[in-house]
Structure formats: structure tokens, C-alpha cells
Amino acid sequence: xxxxxxxxxxxxxxxxxxxxxxxxxxxxxxxxxxxxxxxxxxxxxxxxxxxxxxxxxxxxxxxxxxxxxxxxxxxxxxxxxxxxxxxxxxxxxxxxxxxxxxxxxxxxxxxxxxxxxxxxxxxxxxxxxxxxxxxxxxxxxxxxxxxxxxxxxxxxxxxxxxxxxxxxxxxxxxxxxxxxxxxxxxxxxxxxxxxxxxxxxxxxxxxxxxxxxxxxxxxxxxxxxxxxxxxxxxxxxxxxxxxxxxxxxxxxxxxxxxxxxxxxxxxxxxxxxxxxxxxxxxxxxxxxxxxxxxxxxxxxxxxxxxxxxxxxxxxxxxxxxxxxxxxxxxxxxxxxxxxxxxxxxxxxxxxxxxxxxxxxxxxxxxxxxxxxxxxxxxxxxxxxxxxxxxxxxxxxxxxxxxxxxxxxxxxxxxxxxxxxxxxxxxxxxxxxxxxxxxxxxxxxxxxxxxxxxxxxxxxxxxxxxxxx
Length: 468
Description:
Blueprint: E1 17-21, H1 27-38, H2 46-58, E2 69-79, E3 82-92, E4 96-104, H3 114-129, E5 133-139, H4 143-150, E6 155-161, E7 169-176, E8 189-192, H5 198-208, H6 218-229, E9 242-248, E10 251-260, E11 266-273, H7 276-290, E12 297-302, H8 305-313, E13 317-323, E14 331-337, H9 351-365, H10 374-392, H11 397-406, H12 408-432, H13 436-450, H14 453-456, H15 461-467
């Protein structure tokens, strides 16, 4: 459970932050930070959680109920004598360390750097303890938190729906503390296959692909090259390939073949590299090749820590496991990538649907659904719209733009009024038994016909109506 500061860089004010061990005197503020932040996306007693981690920390780092925990410590971020953030780190017997949680007071998120300082402390402690990997989880609704971590070298490893609260998707993220394998001496240079490279290609594939694929021999390579020679047809049924070779300092370090499939997706097979970094660079090359050519890349690979890390680092999604698909007693994994994706957020879940389920559960738990009426809910939508208007009533557009940019409280008030409108619309849709998104989708289809692009582009509604 990681709750972080949202700025992507740590700047002015970071020198004012002091990271120190938590003390008994910090208990109340730590309880408040956990309860205030975690209750938005996590079920459970967060005050009790705060007490447990503080007790373990003050008890010499031993957690009496944690069977995997080796040591456990709580650190706080302090600014001007005020505790503004907290982090609990639990060292595991397996040589890893979990951050659970890391929370920063909202007033000290961003450029003041409290979150950055706590995160740096976790890496410092991990290195001192000989820990190989830090890990934690982020709730998908807190998307900016995951962005914070991704921009600091962390990787999204997996997703799990309804793990800590029904309807909330949780993302597991990790950071390899001393990942020297990810540094290459120089970038790979890619070139299209040519007949003069046949023997080099054959040696590379027959010596490397058998790690999880049976039948990789000279006949396989000849068939692969024949597919490359058919690339001029551009016919899917011809099963053509485009083969590229990646070189580092003149040494062949990766091979990738693009095979278009029915439906427009492109399969990368074979795809093999001599190191994790060479594989990551090859994936980036594939992604640049894909832009404007396909809606999806996918490949089948053996299950190996370096391979998994490379694909996760380049934002590919694990789509399934294929036992014995390519060799007896071996498992292959299917990885997929969609052009334009830069994070894992929202890939496997409908965030509005998940939120709707959570919100309606909130309403039902309080018995409000039993006293609802369509008229009252519709009036509530209008009332909340009026409150949104009241925030903007006496402001010019220039003033609104400036306040949204500079005044955090103003932006929060506007966003909360808009959220209230959404909440009442969700309740109204449930009461009236229609799907809100389906209705909006149908109305969009009507409006596409009603407002042709060539007639309305750049026109405000009143000017368009006047011309009709």
C-alpha cells in the first residue's frame, strides 16, 4: 500500500525534509496518516495496522505475527518539527523488502519532496541490509502514485482485482536495488536480414531458442528465411516475416521476426536476445516498428526472471501461460503490447465500472438506496450542478484558468462538486434501471449524426443552431 507525493521530480524544499526513526510520540499522527489515506481504497482497521507496525518497530524491529518478516522499521518524514510522512519497511526472509505503507500528508506532496526522501531512505536501507528487491502495491484509483514510482525506475509487475477491497484493482510494483544487468555498453544497431547473414542467424537461433522451443534446427531457419523472402507480398496468408538483427559492437545480440496475423495483430517469433538490456532494446525497436502498422504486438517467451523483468519494464502485459506449448515439461508465457500505452493503468479493468460498484456498495451499506426517489435524485443532480456553478459564478475565464493552475483548494472544490454530480447520476441510473455508460454511448452515436464534423468544427452550439 503506497501513497506517495504526486510530483514527478523532487525540487525546492527537499533539503528541509528530515527522515528519522519513528518514536512513541509519533503514534497519533501515524494513526491519522494511515486512516486518512488508506480508507479511500483499502478495507480494514488502519488504526490497528498503525499500532501493529509501530509496536513491531519499537520492539526492536521484530513482528511477532509476521511469519515471513525478518525485521520491520517505521520511518517518518519531518519538516519544521512536524511529521509530514510515514513509511514502514518489512525485510523478508527471502531477501526482499516490502514498503507497506508509504504515506505523505497531502499538504506536503509534490515539490517539497517528502515522498522522494522516504523512497530514497528505503533504497538506502535495502542496500545496507543486502536486500535485492523492494516491492509494494498501489491501488489503481491512485494512478498518480504509480506514475511517481514508474518515473523513478520502479516496474509494474502484476494486477489483482478485489484484493484489498471489492472492485478495486491493485498493482504490484517492484524495484531491483542493484540491477547492474540493465546497463548496456552501447545501444544496439538494428538491420534487416540479408542472405549474407544466414550462417550467423542459424548459429544464433539454434544455440539459444531451444531453451523453451523444440524443433529449432536448420530446417526451421530455412523456413523462417523463406518467410522473410515473401515479405513483398504483404499477404497474411503467405505467412511472411520481417527479420531484423540487433548488433552490439558488431556482435549479434538479438534477433526479432515480425509476423502479421489475421485481425491485424503481429506476432514476434522468434524473439531472442543475449541479455536483459538487449531484450529491452529489442522490445523498444519492435514498439517503434509497430507505430502506424498494427494495433497489437504479442510474443511467446520462456519464463525467466530476466525475461519477465524486461517485458514488464517496457510495459508489456502478461496475457497467459502456455504449459508445454513449445516443449515438453516447459512453460511459455504470452506477452502483449498495445501501441500508445505508457503505463499499466486501467489495462484489465473498467475504472468507472469498478468505482460504480464501490460507490453503490457505500450507498447500500448506509440504507440510502431504500429511501431513494427518482425525483429527489434528479433534483440532487441539479443542486450539485448549482454548487459547481457557484464556484465559478463571479470569475472570468482567465481567473478560472489561473485559479485551477495555482490554487489547490479551488481545484479540489471544483473537482468535488463535479464528483457529487457523477455520484448522483450513478444513483439515478441505478434507480431507473439503465446503464449510464450504455446510454451515454447511444447518445454519442446520435450526436455524431446530429453534428457532422464538416458543419460544426470550431463552432459553439448557439452559432451552429442559428445556421440550421
